[in-house]
Write a structure and sequence with these properties.
Number of helices: 12
Oligomer: single chain
Strand content: under 5%
Shape: globular
Largest sheet: 2 strands, antiparallel
Distance between the termini: 44 Å
Length: about 350
């Protein structure tokens, strides 16, 4: 693979901007290097997806998706993180085929792992508008992929071009959602999962940076707070001050807590700056900093926000092209995203 310029990033102590950043120091390492691939290196996605796929059949599709996502975002800005998460859940299982949107007994959408997913109404709203303009033309898979991009931009993240031409899957199996990471996996398991999707270690660390926004249910971290590895004690890798904060915040397992304790409503690289301070909410977040395969990337991104933004666009573009259906004999173009077309 052709790589871009080698970046030598000087690591310095972060400036305290809130209670959560006080009295924490990095590990004393001064340098970290990271090779960053250029976006153009991932623009070749075969002969089937293309930027002009709907140019004649449904002109203006991007504008409609943008307008609809913005309408929902203006009413509730937390929908941005939800759309990113919905897209990720979709692509991890069977590729980016909108199988997560199918709603019937035994589908991915009905699985325990999907219980807290949101954003389905947004996709349905976009689909209904597009069906009026271009019936039976724009796939739900393309809509979900583009909606995740629009959500990223609205929350302050980078823009990337989304090629179109995905078809919608016709199968959705609840048990397959066991593939979706739940925040407790070790780094080896995560690397293997990402490799199975055609993604690499850099993509793993960068896409984890989506945790710069959004929330998690307190139930996910209960064991870290009170009974880590059945010891009856909290996870020793958590900063004591952060631990006390989480215990106050998480009175009930059904409560929610921000994934990024310092700037939860801003798309930035604070997620990475939190990890050396032992302020990763999920155990898999914390592991990114302690594992030698991912730690150098975390350190680099923590001190180079522009590199994070660039690479997030690259990795999201790659994610959106995972195992897509493009052949006319694969899948279908659903007229309603929550159910398969009638025979």
């Amino acid at each position: 693979m052709k790589w871009g310029v080698l970046l030598v990033l000087i690591l310095a102590s972060a400036t305290a901007v809130s209670w959560a950043e006080k009295d924490f120091e990095d590990d004393g390492e001064e340098y970290s290097s990271l090779e960053i691939p250029q976006l153009k290196e991932f623009s070749a996605f075969g002969d089937f997806l293309s930027y002009g796929f709907y140019q004649k059949s449904c002109p203006g599709v991007d504008g409609i998706i943008h307008r609809k996502v913005k309408q929902w975002f203006d009413k509730d800005n937390t929908i941005a993180a939800s759309l990113l998460r919905l897209h990720f859940h979709d692509c991890v299982v069977r590729g980016c085929d909108a199988s997560i949107l199918l709603d019937y007994e035994g589908s991915e959408r009905r699985a325990p792992a999907s219980k807290t997913l949101r954003g389905f109404e947004v996709i349905d709203d976009i689909k209904a508008e597009l069906e009026k303009k271009c019936p039976k033309t724009v796939s739900c898979a393309d809509i979900l992929t583009a909606a995740a991009r629009e959500a990223t931009v609205l929350i302050g993240g980078p823009y990337w071009m989304v090629p179109y031409g995905r078809r919608d899957g016709v199968d959705s199996i609840a048990k397959e959602t066991e593939l979706v990471p739940m925040g407790i996996e070790d780094i080896t398991s995560l690397i293997e999962l990402y490799q199975s999707l055609g993604l690499n270690v850099l993509d793993l660390v960068v896409l984890s940076g989506a945790h710069t926004i959004g929330r998690a249910t307190c139930g996910v971290i209960q064991e870290r707070l009170y009974n880590y590895s059945a010891t009856g004690k909290p996870d020793p890798s958590l900063n004591p001050k952060y631990l006390n904060f989480l215990r106050r915040k998480c009175r009930w397992a059904t409560d929610y807590v921000d994934l990024d304790a310092t700037t939860p409503n801003k798309f930035d690289n604070a997620y990475y700056s939190n990890l050396p301070k032992k302020m990763g909410l999920l155990s898999s977040d914390s592991a990114l900093y302690t594992d030698s395969r991912t730690s150098p990337i975390v350190k680099a991104l923590a001190y180079q926000p522009s590199i994070f933004r660039h690479q997030f666009a690259v990795s999201m573009a790659k994610l959106g092209n995972v195992q897509v259906l493009t052949d006319l004999f694969e899948g279908e173009i659903r007229t309603k995203c929550s159910c398969r077309n009638s025979p």
